[in-house]
Amino acid sequence: MMFKHNLMVSLMAALCAVTVMVFGILNPTGANASGLEKKVVIYSTHGESLLEAVADAFEQETRVKVDFINLKGELADRVRAEKANPMSDVMFGAPSSVFIELKSEHLFDKYVPSWADQINPLFKDAGGYWFGTIQTPVLMFYNSEMISGQDAPKDWQDLIKPQYKNQLVFRNALSSSARATYSSLLQQYEKQNDLESGWRFLKAVDANTKRYYGSGSLQFQAVGRKEAAISFAVLNSVFDNKIKNHLPLEIIDAKSGSPVITDGIALIKGAKHPNAGKAFIDFAGSAKIQSMLANKFNRLPTHPAAIANSPAWMAAVKFKVMDVDWGALSSKQSGWMQKWDEQVKNTGKDKK
């Protein structure tokens, strides 16, 4: 009996060894039992701490290792440069205009995540190539210790009024939110076949602008120190500074609406770890993870179920959405912002 038992054990061990060997041959990427590769590579514009939080949660749930690189403004160019030999599997973060542009260059593979039908069409590609995980409204705000709500601007057009001379501070066009905002404002004039008036408007705004900042923290510090009363920024940054830094800030619901940037996610065409990439997309956009990012990082979800389990201000805040054709804007934004940088920024006279 003992001999038979030992023989059976030896046969089972040999069978397992053969199975492992064959599995390795059939799955050269090292896929695990669920069909996922052993790692996934993420290119992103999100901050390190946010990426680490999502990566750690994904690794814990799937045992798939996440390699992520924060590329900021270089992300799109990196994906383009690697078109023939992609080094990443997923693009996570950047405005929808960038996703639209890269989709037109055939840099994504179609993949519709499990949560796709839960989100508003405003936050996703109708063709199924990219989907929004974070909505990022850009709103004007003001220091309520410097001006009252009655005296604050009611719309973007008010920024050129004489009473706001040297009362404005903004980000420069290196900021994705600023690029989106300046371009969105120009598009409103283009729709009326009067783009030149849009450029005159931005020059008039520049004449009232005290300073542009390359850093969001310096921008908010300037408003907090009362160097200027009015600015614009992504909504979560306004609430971050209002709640955590106790700055006396109030948002402005512009009459003509405010641009809403959608941070997206997509599967890179020709990804070396496509199954793990798809699993990451399913995971990162789920209500569970969107809610986690809302509570830990003040990011406003696109998923309705996530908003229900997010900080109270996210469900309470109301704002009008500006009518922006992000698809049309994607091909013009770079050229417009180069012109803004060369012909608008700091061209106003009598600036102090």
UniProtKB/TrEMBL annotation:
One protein family per Pfam: SBP_bac_6
The entry's keywords = Signal
**Taxonomic classification, please?**
Bacteria, Pseudomonadati, Thermodesulfobacteriota, Desulfobacteria, Desulfobacterales
Its transmembrane ranges are: none
Give the protein name, as stated in the record: Iron(III) transport system substrate-binding protein
